[in-house]
Automatic annotation (TrEMBL):
Belongs to the NAD(P)-dependent epimerase/dehydratase family. UDP-glucuronic acid decarboxylase subfamily. This is UDP-glucuronate decarboxylase. It is found in: Golgi apparatus, Golgi stack membrane. The chain holds residues 83 to 438 of 445 of the full protein. It is a single-pass type II membrane protein.
């Protein structure tokens, strides 16, 4: 049962019951923090399309107005420039909390590019503040108005996992003082806060642990592997494989993730739920798929790997299959071309970037 064939004839109401779409369901007021970003903007598209009102809260740290411009002028859409580290008063039914500097160059020391240490420290602090104070504020908001709260956590809570594939019951193997711990530990703390507000204040919460996701609107230069390889192939630059390229990741297309997030929010289960595509690839295999999709002559160049890089990552999604009726339906080979055409368009629109 894949979601693409799943009937949209019913809908899980926020209160939990199934309501026929034919009968009129109450439109919801939903806030999406980080809604100007890659995943957030696709989520907003779906929520608007099904008839709800959406408020996006975003400080444009990595997000872009372009991702949401097609909703400007829609009375059911509102965009607020705001940093979630500061408190905010809103009246809503649901909160999707995505705000977080999520891309590696924003939290990880990258030996390939030199980042001065002041900037680095400042950015690391920003990640932790967003994850801890930002999540606390959104939970405070959920508590005050009785909204349901969904946290987008990450597979990084498993660290460099000693269990493969990763099941939600695994507690992880995280270095608390490493270069990527601001992200890993920040998200772990966000999960803790979420469960504390659930147990202590009775807030309805949902936790998603998202595995590597790709698709249109990804930041072109944020340093993640899929966006790097695709941009490099289109620019006729060599694909940069870090380390020996034998480390693995499992890549999920963004529409599959958005379907999973909505099912999680509307369902009855707190989670945490792994949301990811179990198809596992080494970075060399990924480079091959990119070559096949864009340019068979693209060169591969090896670079030193970053510190604390997880060796393997692959989600066990039995729990989401069983309790949410969800599983991904877009394979890497089918999803990649959709991202490539978006990148091709954006790169050709920016002559500086293609070096013309
Ligand atoms: P993104 O960088 O495209 O989006 C994050 C958004 O949050 C951006 O629009 C950014 O401007 C905004 N933001 C950051 N700090 C903020 C702050 N303090 N206040 C308000 N807005 C702020 O990243 P994404 O890939 O869309 O990620 C969305 C969420 O999913 C993140 O929480 C991320 O940790 C999680 N996630 C993503 C992946 C993935 O592969 N894309 C994997 C695991 C988890
Ligand atoms: N908060 C917010 N919007 C609200 C309600 C709360 O931003 O509508 C913030 C609030 O400023 C606080 C955090 O959420 O920093 C946690 O709120 P809570 O009421 O749980 O804690 P308290 O304010 O009692 O410390
Ligand atoms: N990676 C790579 N070349 C790049 C960027 C990343 O080989 O240009 C590798 C990186 O070392 C890691 C994997 O790809 O092993 C995934 O990296 P990414 O930053 O996309 O995601 P994460 O490490 O957070 O899973």
């Amino acid at each position: 049962s894949t979601h693409s064939t799943h009937p949209v004839s019913y809908y899980h109401h926020a209160a939990g019951g199934k309501v026929l779409l034919g009968l009129k369901r109450k439109a919801l007021r939903i806030v999406v923090t980080g809604g100007a970003g890659f995943v957030g903007s696709h989520l907003v598209d779906r929520l608007i399309a099904r008839g709800d009102s959406v408020i996006v809260v975003d400080n444009f740290f990595t997000g872009r107005k372009e991702n949401l411009m097609h909703h400007f002028g829609n009375p059911r859409f509102e965009l607020i420039r705001h940093d979630v580290v500061e408190p905010i008063l809103l009246e809503v039914d649901q909160i999707y909390h995505l705000a977080c500097p999520a891309s590696p160059v924003h939290y990880k020391f990258n030996p390939v590019k030199t980042i001065i240490s002041f900037l680095k420290t400042h950015r690391f602090a920003t990640v932790n503040k967003t994850n801890v104070v930002g999540t606390l504020n959104m939970l405070g908001l959920a508590k005050r108005v009785g909204a349901r709260f969904l946290l987008t956590s990450t597979s990084e809570v498993y660290g460099d996992p000693l269990q493969h594939p990763q099941v939600e019951t695994y507690w992880g193997n995280v270095n608390p003082i490493g270069v990527r711990s601001c992200y890993d530990e920040g998200k772990r703390t966000a999960e803790t806060l979420t469960m504390d507000y659930h147990r202590g204040a009775g807030i309805e919460v949902r936790i998603a642990r998202i595995f590597n996701t790709y698709g249109p609107r990804m930041c072109i230069d944020d340093g993640r592997v899929v966006s790097n390889f695709v941009a490099q192939a289109l620019r006729k630059e060599p694909l940069t494989v870090y380390g020996d390229g034998k480390q693995t990741r499992s890549f999920q297309y963004v529409s599959d993730l958005v379907e999973g997030l909505i099912r999680l929010m509307e369902g009855e289960h707190v989670g945490p739920f792994n949301l990811g595509n179990p198809g596992e690839f080494t970075m060399l295999e990924l480079a091959q798929v990119v070559q096949e999709t864009i340019d068979p002559n693209a060169k591969i160049e090896f670079r030193p790997n970053t510190e604390d890089d997880p060796h393997k990552r692959k989600p066990d999604i039995s729990k989401a299959k069983q309790l949410l009726g969800w599983e991904p339906s877009v394979s890497l080979r089918n999803g990649l071309p959709l991202m490539v055409s978006d990148f091709r368009q954006r790169l050709s629109g920016d002559r500086k970037e293609v070096g013309a």
